[in-house]
Design goal:
Blueprint lengths: L4 E7 L7 H13 L4 E7 L1 H4 L6 H17 L7 E5 L5 H10 L4 H5 L2 H9 L6 H15 L5 E3 L5 H18 L7 E3 L32 H9 L19 H14 L3 H7 L5 H28 L1 H30 L5
Helix pairs in contact: 3-12, 4-7, 4-13, 7-8, 9-12, 10-12
């Protein structure tokens, strides 16, 4: 039997997981459970480029792990771990900083964006974190890294750094390919449909652990469009708000845009928006209930992240030992 290809991804626990994370990423991860050897982690080390409340960071990290499982990521079939529990990430991150050029880091779009948002805290970690991200990836020698548009630049940098290192020291790192999912809803903010759904726009964001009544309230207030036809029609250019709601409804129900248009023909937005809200509430209900149950079972949750870190450390250490040997570091 052929070995499975390796896939790796992570999400920062810098905010609560939301519908965009689920429909755009986690749902796709679940669908690939049996196809790949998967590593999924809570990228807690990346969060501290921005100041965090320690208690909130701990809560969100554990809640994110519980939600991964509740969404269908079976810990028996996927390696689920907390980034800071695998010390090799920080160690390889430093090595790769020494093989990442200053000019490459200064061109990173996210560094420019975050520097503009956090002018009082433009720290070295914020500048160099693409090197840590490269380490996150290359430690596990993955074949594929799922990337959205906003992470493509980091994946390209990772490939460049890996090739640079390999050109000096031989075939150390596998060069990962970006994996663009065939189908993954691009979920936009409910009250700013030209922006991705984000925790930074909470009124337009549906959180996975949110109460049903709050979800419905947000959908009832969702922006549609300013034309007078009040018609459910998929036209992202003319009706971005309606198109976003249709995209969400389609991702959850499996209906095509044509079927949705037929289902709500003549109904107007007054019926359509609550219907999308209902579909989202019922989709998230079992996830929220299962995550709540898992969070109450602290021993189980601890056993998952400890087993995940143990497996991840074993794989990561093989790569790090190879790197250290190539660099000329004395073996421990």
């Amino acid at each position: 039997m052929d070995e499975k290809k390796v896939m790796l991804s992570g999400i920062q626990p810098s905010g609560d997981l939301h519908l965009g994370n689920y429909l755009g990423a986690i749902k796709n991860w679940v669908a690939r459970t049996d196809e790949f050897d998967n590593y999924y982690f809570m990228a807690d080390m990346h969060t501290i480029t921005v100041r965090q409340n320690p208690a909130d960071l701990r809560r969100r990290t554990l809640e994110q792990l519980a939600l991964y499982i509740a969404c269908g990521l079976d810990p028996e079939k996927n390696t689920l771990f907390i980034q800071s529990h695998v010390h090799q990430h920080a160690e390889l991150g430093w090595v790769l900083q020494c093989y990442t050029m200053f000019g490459e880091l200064s061109r990173m779009t996210q560094f420019k964006d975050k520097s503009a948002k956090h002018k009082e805290n433009i720290n070295g970690g914020l500048f160099a974190y693409p090197s840590l991200m490269a380490a996150d990836i290359l430690l596990y020698q993955p074949d594929f890294v799922p990337v959205g548009e906003d992470q493509k630049q980091h994946c390209e940098l990772t490939r460049d750094v890996a090739q640079r290192f390999n050109s000096v020291y031989g075939d150390v790192f596998k060069i990962p390919e970006p994996y663009i999912p065939k189908a993954g809803a691009r979920v936009m903010s409910l009250n700013a449909p030209d922006s991705k759904m984000s925790k930074s726009l909470p009124e337009g964001c549906i959180f996975l652990m949110e109460k049903p009544e709050d979800i419905q309230r947000k959908f009832k207030r969702a922006i549609t469009d300013s034309d007078t036809e009040n018609c459910v029609r998929y036209d992202p250019a003319a009706k971005p708000g309606v198109a976003n709601l249709m995209s969400i409804y389609s991702a959850i129900t499996g209906s095509t845009y044509e079927q949705i248009e037929a289902e709500f023909a003549g109904c107007g937005y007054g019926k359509f928006k609550p219907a999308v809200g209902d579909a989202v509430v019922e989709c998230l209900r079992p996830i929220r209930e299962e995550a709540t149950r898992i969070l109450a079972d602290k021993a189980y949750l601890e056993s998952v992240y400890k087993a995940g870190a143990e497996k991840a450390s074993y794989v990561a250490n093989k790569t790090l030992r190879k790197v250290y040997k190539k660099l000329g570091f004395v073996a421990r």
